[in-house]
Write a structure and sequence with these properties.
Elements: H1 3-9, E1 30-31, E2 38-39, H2 48-63, H3 65-69, H4 80-83
Antiparallel strand pairs: 1-2
Bound molecules: zinc ion.
Length: 86
């Protein structure tokens, strides 16, 4: 009997992985993810100041003001059939 056979019969199951107890996230006092100011909220979110700032800075994107100001470059030659005058 070789040593390989012996080790195959003596397979020991590894101990089950034990995960640490999940810690409850404390919403009554946590640092704002943006400005790190200690704050409380009903759900995880940036503080009111940051929300106001983000709304103000991203309003243009949402309403399409930036998209309207963008004029695409004409890189494509217009269709030859459309240009043909007859
Ligand atoms: Zn903040």
């Amino acid at each position: 009997m070789s040593t390989a056979d012996k080790s195959a019969t003596e397979v020991v199951k590894p101990a089950p992985t034990v995960f640490p107890e999940r810690t409850q996230f404390d919403l009554s006092s946590y640092p704002c993810p943006r400005c790190e100011k200690t704050m409380a909220a009903d759900s995880y979110a940036p503080c009111q100041d940051c929300i106001a700032e983000l709304k103000a800075s991203q309003q243009g994107e949402a309403t399409g003001e930036a998209a309207a100001a963008y004029e695409p470059k004409m890189n494509v030659t217009p269709n030859a059939v459309a240009l043909k005058d007859d």
